Each structure stands twice: as C-alpha cells, then as structure tokens.
Amino acid sequence: MGDNKQLLLLGNLSPGDDHVFLERIQACINHRNSHGSHSTNALDSIAGEQIKQIVVGPDHIALLFNDHSVGRIAFDVNEVKPPQTTISPEKPVSGGSNNNSGSNISAGTNTDSNAGTSNATAGSNPPPGSSGNPSFASAAVVNANRTAKIRRVMMASRRAGSQFAARGGVIVDRGRALIPASSIPEDLIAQAQVVLQGKSREVIVRELQRTNLNVNEAVNNLLSREDDEEDLEDGADAYLPEELLSLLDAGLRSSEGLMEQEGLYTTGEGYEYLMARELSGVRRRDGRIEPSRKDRPTTETSTTVREKFVFGDAIEYWTGSADDKMPPNVKKFVKIAAFQGELLALTDTGVLYGWRWQRKALGENVPHLINTMFFGNQLTQTEYFTDFETSAYRAVVLTNTGRMGSFVDSRTLGRKIADALFMPLVEVPDGEAVESVHVCPMFAAVRTKSSLYWWGINPFTERRRVFDKHKNKAKKFISTSSSDIKIGAEVRTKSNPVYAANSIAVNLQSSVPMVGVMMESAWSLTETCRFRIYTPEQFDQLKEDLKPKEDKKAMNLSVGNRKRAAPSDDVSSASQPPVKETAWLIKDVFFIHEEPCNDIGVVQIIDGPICGIHFKSYIDEKKKTGDGNDLVVVQGGGRQLSAPVTFERNPQRVFLPHGIRKVISLVVDNSGFRILVEKKGRLHLIRMSTLGKVSSDHMLPISFSAVCGPHDNPEPSKAQLINYGDDNVLLLRDYNGALIPLIRNAIGGYCEPIYLGFTGMQHLSVGVRYLKSNETSSAVISSAPIEKGSKNDTPRTGSKLILIASMITPSPESVQPNLPSLMQLVFYCDVGGVKSFLKKLTEISRNMKEDEFKKFIEQKIIRLRADGNRTILHAAVMQAFARSNANQADVEPSNNEVPGQSLLTLQEALDMTEADAHREKMDRQWKNMIAGAVSDGAKQLAKEAAAAAVKETRDTRSKDDPKPKEVENMEVEDVSSSGKPVSDLKTRQKNSIEILKLFVENGAMQPCLTELLHVRDIHGHTAFISAIQNRAYGAASVLWSSMLKLFKRLPIDDFTNQVYNHAIHSDDSPLFILCYNDTCSFTWTGDEHINQDIFECKTCGLTGSLCCCTECANTCHRNHDCKLKRTSPTAYCDCWEKCSCRALVAGNDTQREYLLRELLRHTDLISQTNSRGEHLLLFLARTVGRQLIEQENFTRRNKNRTNPASSLNAASGGQEIPERDLEPPKFAQRALRICLSEWLAVKSLILVGVKTPNEGNFISEEAFHLQSQNGCTHLDKFVYTLLAKCQEAHLDILLNSFITVANKKGDLRDNKIDYCISRFIRSVTRVFALTTLVAPSTLALTINSAACNADDDAAIKFSTSTGEVSRPPPTRAIAISGIF
Asked: Region Disordered: start and end of each range (predicted)?
C-alpha cells in the first residue's frame, strides 16, 4: 500500500450554488474511498512531508518544498461531451411560438407542449436546439433578459444617404428597471417642459423613464437629438421613431421577429452595438425568404458536460532545471503567494522574486521591481521583508522594523494603475506589534493584540456613509435664502455632480480589470453612467493628458442650457486605441482620478435676479452669470466634500466589538472584516465594516473544541479562515488542518457541516481564475473522478472560477510507508488491512518499551483525525449505516446473534405475567418469586445465547470449507492485502461494523480505547452518540458492549457521565435520540396528503407551501428555527426535496430496542429532560397519540399507492424520490410499553419538578401543600395524553408497575411509592375535574358507569386490554381508565 497521496483541485463557478459545490466534493471523496486515490504523476516520487506550502494560480499550482526550492505544476481543463444526436422536426403547438430555441431557456428540462411560452431566467442554460451554436445560444440568453431595461439611443454623425439604413447608432444597456409613468413626479415633467418647449408630454415622460428621473440628462438627450435631426437632410425618416424605442424598451421576445440575434447584438461587457444596416438586412434578405428553423432537422448536442482539471506530467522548477533550482544569489525561499499575473516568492534575506504564470516561462533571476519601490535602488540590510500576503490584485508586506506597505499586481492592472494604488511603508500607530497581515483587492489590514488597522481603498458602503454624514453636517452652514446673496459672498449652485465627466475609474468586478473615463457626470452614488473603457494595456499606452482642453471647458456648471457635447466631439482619437463604451454602476468602480468642478465662486455683481460670479479653479479663472434663485450661500466652515473619500493613505484603527473572549482567525474582503471569535464557549463568525460597525453575528453550529482544540491547550489555535480576499468564498480549517465548508442556510446563517470522509489534508489554498466575457464553464470542475450517479453540470456563464487546491496525504512520512494510515484503511472499509495493522501493532507493543509505545500509539491512533475532528471510531461509524433501505446490511440474521433479543422477548412475557397475576389475585409471595427467578434466568439466557452465537460464528469463519448460504451472506470482505478499497455499499457497511469489533477486542488498542470513546466530533457527539444519531445501531451495540466492559465497576451516575454528559446539550441524549429516530412520513405516505402535524423550518427554507413532518422536525431540523405550521395539517413531508433528509432509513429496529432497554437498565439518562423540558415518557405518549391518528387510514392508502421503484421527480431537477412503501413507524408504541414497565422510568416522570425541602426548616401547612404541587403541570400533561390519546394497554402497564412496586416488602419496596401514587391520583383528579368543566357530558357518562358497579372491592382493582374480566370493573378503575 502506498501513501495514497492525492493533489485535489476543485473549481467553483462564481456566482454559483455552494450546495452543488459541496455535493461535488462529496462525490470526489466517495470515489476516493470506494476506488482508491487518484495519483498525480508529477508527485509520485515526492513524499507529503517534503512539501511545505502550496498556492494556486490561474493555470498552475505552485509548491514550496522543504529544501526551500519552488516548483509548479500546470493544469488545464478538458471538456467531455456526450455524442451528438439528430432530432427530427416537430410540429409546433397551437398558441405557442414558432420554435423552442428562443423561448424556452430553462435549465435541465425537456421541451414539451408548453415550451412555446417564454420561460427564460437570468443565467439559465441555452435551449437544447441551440447548444451546437454557442453564439446563437448566448445571443438568445441576452435577448431573453432584455426585458424591462432602459436603452438610450445616441445617433452618430451624418452619413451618406437619407434612409434609416444609412444611419448608425449605439444602444447602451442601462441595466435597471423601467420606472412606471405614473410614478414620475409632476414637478420633474414641468421642469423639463420649461426648457423643451414644443416637445410632447409623452416624449418627455419616456426620456425621464430612460434616464431614471434625471432631468438634466433627459433635457440634454432630447436637445442633442433635436440638433442631429436639424443636420440631417431627411430627419423625419432617419430618426428612430418612438414606436421603435418602445419596442426596444419592452424587449424583443421572439427570435424570428423584427430583428435577428445573429450579428445584430454583440454581447459585450454591459454594452451592445446596433447597426442600422443590419436592421435593413433583417427586414428583407434580398427578396429571399429563408425556411424557418423549426422545419430543419437540428443536430443537438446535450448541454450537460463534465469538465475536468488535468495536471501536467512534470514539475517546472524556478530555473527550469531540477539540478540547479535556485536563481543567483538565492539560497532559500521561505514563503510563496499568488497574484493573478505572477507568483511571488520571499527569500530568507527578505527579498521578493517573481515568476510569471505564462506557460514555459521561467522565474526571474533578479529581485522584483517592488523591492526598489519600497527600499530604493540599494537594498539595505537594516530593513527587509519578513512576511507578506496576496489576493488576486493586491499584496501587503511587513518589514522587520514593523513597518507595513501595500502594492498591486502591475502585470494584470498595468503600470499606471499600480503607481496610483501603491502604498509606501508606514509605521503602525502607537508602536503596536503586528500579529498577522491580511489583504483583499481593495485594501490591506494588520491585526495587533488589541485592535485592527487598515489602509487603501475605502469600501463603497463605508465611503458613501461618510460622504452622506459630511453632506448633512454641511447643510447647517448653507443658506438657501436669496436675500443672503451679497457682493463678496461665497456661493455655489444648489446641485453639483458627485463625479464630473472625464474622471477616471477602475472596475474590478468584470472578468478582466478595466479602466473607464466618464462620459457624463454622476449626480448621485446610485447612478449608472457611461464610460469609455480601456484595458490596462491600452490605458498604459494612452497619453498622460486624458482630459483635452476643450473637455475641461465643456464642464459648465452655470445655470442655463446644459447641453452636452456629442461623444464624438470629446477627443480626436487618431492616435488612440479603439474606443468602447459601456455603462457601469458607480458602486462597482473606484476612482483614481476625480475631475474637479468649479462649484464655489465669489459674487462680484448683482443685477436683480442675475448674479455675476467669479469661479476659480486649478485650471483657470472663469466668470459666469447665473440666476440667484439657483444659488446658495456657503458660510464659514461649510465647504463640504465634493465626492466620497476613496483612498485612506494612513492606517485607520478599528476596535474589536465587545463581548469577544478570543479572536481565533481573521480575513478581509472588499466589504470589510470577517472574524472568527469565541463567545461564551461557542464559535461566532462576525462581519464588521471598516468603520467598526458589526453588520452580522452568526453563531456557527459546530463544537468549539472540535475546531480549535481543547480549551486547556496552551498553544494558540491553528484554526484558520481562508478566502483569498474574495467575497464569494470562505473556508474554515480546523486545528487538524481539515476543511470545513461554510455554506449559507435559508436565513443567512450557516448550515451544519456535513461529513466528507477524508484524512491527512496537509495543505489548502484558494485562488481565482477569471473567465473571459461570455465564456461558459461547468458549475463545478474537479481534478479527481467522481462517484457514479452524480449529476452532470450544465455549462453557463460566470465571472470567475474559485479554485481550491489541497494536498491529501494520509501517510506523509514516506512514499511507501512501513505502516499504512489506519484512518485510510477504515475509509476503504478494508478489514484485511485493519487486521494486518493491528497484528503489527501487537508485535510492536511486545518489542517496544511502554513509554515509547504510548507515544507511538498517540501518534498513530489517538491523534489521528478525519474531517470534523472524527477519530477512527467515528470514521468506522460513519461507514456503518445505509443511505437507503435497499442497501441496508445491518439486518437480523437467521440465528440469535443479536445480543438482547431473547431478553427482549422474555421481558415482554414477564410484563404480561405480572398483569395476569394481579387480575387473577394469585399469591403475592409466589408471584414475586417467579418474577425474580424469570428475570435472572432471562439475563443469563441472553448472555449464554449471545456468547454461543459469537463463538459459533468465529468457529465457522476459521474453517476453509464453504459456508452455508445464510451465513455466507453475512460474511465481511476479508482481503489478504491491505490498501484495497471496497466499493459495494452493503459490504462496506458490514466491514465497518467488523472493523469496530476488531478495535474494541484488540488488546493493543485497550490503552487508547477510553480516550477514543470520549472524543467529540464537530457536532459534539462521541462515537457512540454518533452511531445512534446516524441509525448505525449495529455499530452502537458494539461500542456499548465495549463501554460496559470498560466502565462496569463505576456507580450508575459516573457510568452515565461516561456515556453522555448532560451539560453538552440536552437534546443529544442517546436515549432521546433513539426515540426521535422514527422514519419520515413520506416513506409510507408518498405524495398523498394525510392529516398530520406539519412544521416549517426557516433555517432550511421549508416555508410557504413546503413543510416537514414531526419525525423530520425531531431529527433533520432539531436545533433549527422550526415551528409548528399554523395552516391546514393535510400535507405530505417535503424535507427530502429541500435538504438531505436523515429520516428515510429505519435502521435495525431490534438493535434499536435492545439499546433502549440497556440504556434504561444501566444509566440514569431517563431522569434527564430534553431542551423543551419534556420527560421521555411525556414525549413518547405524545408521539404515540399523534401517530395513532396519522396512521389510522394507512391500510386504505397503501392499496392505492403507485409503485415507487426509483423514479425521478422532474420538478426537482432529476432528484431521486426516496422509497415510499415502508411500514409506518411503530417503535414509539413499543418504547412506551418498555418505559412504563420500568419503575425507575415511571418514578422519574412523577418526580419531575419536585423540590426537596430543606430539613429542619419550619414550614406552614399551606406552604407544605403548595410545595407538593411542584411539577404537577408536567405530570398533568402526561396523564391527559395517556388517557385521552394512547391505547388502554399502556395504562394497564403503568398501573401494573405501580402495583408491583407497592406490593413488595422490606428493602425491595421503594420508600417513595406511596408519594408517587398519591401524586398520580391527584393528577388524574385534576384532569378529570378540568375535563368535566370543559365537557360536562363526560361526568354523566362516568356517574352512570359507576352506578352499575356500586359493589366496590376494598382492594385496588384494574382492567386490562387482554383477557376478559369476570366481574365489573371498580369505580376507581373507571375514574382512571374510563374517563374519556
């Protein structure tokens, strides 16, 4: 067996579905555990310990080795598509559109009779008929999403000809919804009509709709259009009519309508060009009419593809040679990090080197240019870099003197932007020591012991908040009265732009970073403005002066006609690169240059309402005239910010929120800080802005000790958040290095982490691969094979791929380890490998000293962890239960091998013997003697039967001759060579149970078995509780027998604490979980509605028309925001459709019942209540009463149910419908009988809430009687439920338990039996009294029954549900069992 090393690379399309990404990770890990690891050829000869660090770039994975050299492995994406199939044309359905290609763009569905209607959704998949033509598919998607978007049509200069076909124009997608005409204020229309005299009201309203109620912009557009019409020879025909504009605004819904997608729209980054000559070509194609697409046979390629990462076969070293790996003057590389454009490496002397990501490029032999920018031409020895971190575009550095700086990737963003965003070295305020550095594309941050510091580009939300605050503060110094305008006063216009035209902005939201020059002024921070866009390379080639003189003079803020020059008049582009235009949201960009505007001037002359104003700017002096009514006086101190502050050059301090006990980890993204902290022993994930405001605080549903290590561990926690400075990804690594995906739930919190099943994740890194415009990709791409049955992905567009690279090395010490990883053998379900390992372990224990062997055991077994802090026992348990009833292997064999089975049958017979003895008034002494003898005999018989069965099985397995068929079916797969994975699901389950038996029976494992049984996983469960939680009752029985052997000498209270600590969580009691674990109602109702209690879970999104049954609420949605639904209770359970339902498999009911009896007999768990304050008997009584009502019509429905097979639900996207032909759950009825027959269980129920008075204290008679009523509410609930909703047989068993204990003599008699009986009788009386008040007819029925039985016997009598009573029942029995 090798080291099972695997380099795993995963790519998640962003924006995307994190749940799909998690499912693909599971599929990769399941394939690894079932079929073996998928090795990487380039790393076959390298042990895991030789790799120190890995980082991931756009198309390479870089590795830092322990010999301080750096190498990288290239990877690429290979696409696999199903073969093409030819589809014959079909006739369209009446009322539908003429084809499916332009109308039905829904994902993953087959076209049907309704396919003609429009069903396009944003980001959906192309239609089946268009997958062979990517350009057509993308155009169809763009066309389908064109509805309700505002366009502005700007006519270019005059061209030859007077027809419309000779004109050209640009349609700019504004990207916002059309404002209804009724919502436009009348004052805005009136303002526009004053200037636009002669324009109709409808034209003005439509233009205001297009400009989002921007009056100035609407007026300028209409005036510019009017001038263009005057310049045309035949303007009436050449101008785009309003009807066509309305058509464009409404969207083109048909692919065969006025315009054709092909060649008409070019799908750019937010902008589209419309050429009029193409319009004319669409209207008439030289008189030829082409046949409709629906009449042609189409060649269809399935849109479902599966893409895979493929690694290179060799490692590329820095210098290109494996012999000489280091560049000149470099001895060691100590750290590496990835930019989008290059790999950065830090030497031991504090110098940074670079290596471009291009294929076949070699690392640089000279230090990176950034060293010179920080330290000058001469690199000094007094100050050098000690640490650095990178994101996609920005990096932060820390020097040995405590100074910090920041710079950006010049290879991706260009030299000009890099110079503008460069942050020189600064000192930490107050001389605080830096503990860690963090960076995102917008800003950098450092963490000190008491606070955080950040500097760089202020996030948009925070800079808008500060800007609004300054504006509100400046309003106090502004006078709006025209009488205050005097000569010499400083005035400004009432409205001025936030960002003036010709300001330069950078957009990092697109797939490729773009630089834009504003073509219009932005008057608010919520606008969408037009930009001339350039790539960083084009921007570097531009002249330094991007703002021509005439553009600056065109910036006129005087009150008057603000007619904007045409875009073609801005600048002569003879020597400039081709200009593209697009519309960007202001919030998506940041400005590296803000064009100043003359907003404040001095009044020099006043002539009535006209003022002469002198504006002075950094360019020149201007004198303007304006209306005094449009001016405001600026008083002293009233100079406000003209635009938000984009850059913070000095470190800004942010204090941590109050109530934080400990900061575990910290990351930053473009929105602020994300901090993992400890609060009151629980993990919280906090999002905090750069202003120090907490925007969210979510408690993670995971155990603190499982993520951060034990509380008493003096070493700092190794738990770490990872996000690469990106908002769309957040990973958590626990102190063992395992991955914990943080997936959002329906209410914005985080889901419980699911089990993945891997061990030995040594390294983890996150990167980003940006996609080109309109480039499609699978939702998830992996480098490893995935389990069969996983759904294929449909390619779609996205902005980037989030890359996650990890190195899984279960045995990192060697390529061919002497002793394989025991955890990996458990994941393989390899019984032979485990036996071989334990055999070697036994030999080592004999040849090694005791202290050395303890250290060896601690390293190889005790400290061995899988994901979720799971030990080898947890790992075996997680393989020991079935995911479906068809694959269930934990079933009862033909012999009585199951421990406790004979005891179970005899105990039930014992209960009936007690009832018959009381009814027939047999001799009390004889009955007690029989009871004791049978009880002892039952126990002895159970032990002998179990031992004989185990011995017989072992003897049979030791023989070489063929086994009988029924025994052979239960045999585990025993391989001779270790390291062979098992793929059959049933065999894996049986092997896992056998592996647990090997662990608990092996002598060398006994010293570490106690510690392994006490370790809790990420959910806070021990291996035993985890087995019960996951319905692995066979594995739980094995662990229970081991605990009985280890802790059998402990008192019952101490033994209970060994099994379960009540302080962890009351709902995790194994006794309650056993009773919770009934199957979902969908397994026996299917999609038929029944009358049942239904719940809604806001955490999982089961709201509205979705709901879940009570069984799922107790299992799948326990500890969620799950409440009873106050609507019609007629429904079926939808839990399996929305989340991974854990209540679909019943498990081994016999083993489950055995565990229940054992926990009642050997522990004191029955005295503990759940989180709702319910005793187990109250919960069981309510469950039985509810299930009796829900299941009363089960037989009738079962006859009409269709065959379940393994059908697929088309509405759920091909999701497999679970089995729905099972029997309704009956375990609660049996469990209630068992608990009612146990006196300790009944006693603990009656004493719930009873307070013991202090001895020796004086107490009045009234207080004494009041104290005797403590806890009566809980008891009354049980009595009412038992009498009103449960069967009479349960009451018989309860009364039998009372009588049995009351009839005992001497020390066998419980001293609280009389007190318990009196509390029970008082409870019955209270329930009876309340019932008669609510329903008086009940009292009359009871009195009539009592009159017929006046001859009451002095002894206590009761009736049973079995057998016939020879005499009428007494009055007391009627009061107890016949009230209702």
From this structure: 81-137, 550-576, 950-984, 1195-1220
